[in-house]
Design goal:
The structure holds two protein chains of two kinds. Chain A is an all-alpha fold. Chain A is built from three helices and no strands. Chain A has a domain of 35 residues. Helix content of chain B is 78%, strand content 0%. Chain B folds into two domains: 381 residues, Sodium/glucose cotransporter (Up-down Bundle), CATH 1.20.1730; 108 residues, no CATH class. The chains are: A mainly alpha, B mainly alpha.
Chain lengths: 65, 493
Amino acid sequence: MRGPYWLGVLPFIGLVIGPFFVNRVTPTILGMPFLLAWIVAWILLTALIMAVIYGLDPANRRSDL
Amino acid sequence: MNVALIFIAAAVVAAVCLGVLARRGKEMSLEQWTVGGRGFGAVFVFLLLAGEIYTTFTFLGGSGFAYGKGGPAYYILAYGTLAYVIAYFMLPPIWRFAKENRLYSQPDFFVRKYDSPALGVIVALVGIVALIPYLVLQFKGLGIIVEIAGYGEISPAVAIWIGAAAVTVYVMLSGVHGSAWTSVAKDTMILVVVVFLGIYLPVHYYGGIGSMFEAVEQAKPGFSALPNHGESVWWFSSTVLLTALGFYMWPHSFGSIYTAKDANAIRKNSIVLPLYQLILLFVFFVGFAAILQVPGLTGSDIDLALFKLSVKTFDPWFVGIIGATGVLTALVPGSMILMTAATLLANNLYRAAHKSADDERVSKLAKLLVPVVALVAVYFTLRGGETIVALLLMGYSFVTQLFPALILSLTRQSFVSREGAIAGIVVGVATVAIISLTHATIGTLLPWLPEAAREINVGIIALVLNVVVMVMVSLAMRFAISHASGASRASAG
């Protein structure tokens, strides 16, 4: 495996396994129920993770790929 | 004609103009028409992918789901995000293979990878059966939006005919270029309108997003999280996973990958699209705001929540702007679906039967099939009926059955044979049909499972059977071949 591709597993842990542990309304975060806030946080994290993967991906240094 | 209808009509006219102008300076060959000459950069690929995602389903269904079911609606946010992670790794090899082999459609990919025209026909049929109800859903949504936002002055049937005619014109003339350009208008409007509604409505009625959720919690405790039964956390996680796998198996999403001019255009979108998903958050806010303000909508009427609340809150001119946005969320994805369905029919069914047909003939036929597909969809929309609803629910599960054969074909030394791929897909699709038509659940099929696990999405069963059959048939074929060649060697020796 080239690059930090393994980081791509994290969103699956957060969004598929995570809900089993955070399925609750309180505490609310920024007014949102906890489960919703958890999902939103993971969306932001996922964008960040994908940006890191993209930045370090050797495939992106060759323009034809 | 009231002021709301003027805005809605203006949106339709603008969409047609944009759509038609999009063809300027291009010779509309099959390659231009269906895959944009494989020259789209990151922004255009984004517009296409975003264009397909924010459909009337997101607009009406997303808010309606939050209104009617609460927490389970969040799955829509989660699965899209995971689909983009998968996309980062899965789409570039698909794009490269498609470019090298000059493919036009999703079935083409299967034909080449498995060297099997029969598999191409099967994949095309699965795609068409899934796409037509999806198009019907867009037309249906369009009828509802124009009826409510136009204060009942135009009947849904008239609105559907006009919408279908508009989209047919620009798809025939501009193909995928038309979809990309109209997407500019649509996504600008949806971004502005939905974010505004999602903030304004909670503040206006409750004083803020936090106090809105408090009021909902007081009226319906636990509603904004997942329930213990039915759409439970087991349902949630299995559905998120299953739909994330199926996401890019829709023929029109798959086909839009081919438009990219390089793989980076695709990879960049895996960073941006998760963020863009957050628009859905505001759609949910609207749905939650409606719970206490327009109570009493049940059944399929929950999809009206956004517009009922808008009509109650705003002046007609602003309802018109929301309606115009809604109409665009029907037209743009509708155009992609229409073009893809016509391409599948001409390029993968007609061409499979007429091997000598060249690109020019297929291209001409595909364009002529656009009004035919549109008419079929209008017919089903106006006739309504249970069948189409059932088909629609099956559509997503149908296309998900293409995932195993696709993903394994990307590995270097795939053990999956063409017979295995065909058998797996056929068994998977048949299982989906049987499960859907008998309304089976994991609970009824596997009653010995513990209570909680019975709420796992039943689509998993079809996918597991699909993979098992695919592996068994592939291994059996390999064994039979090595056995036969061994036997022939022995007799030759």
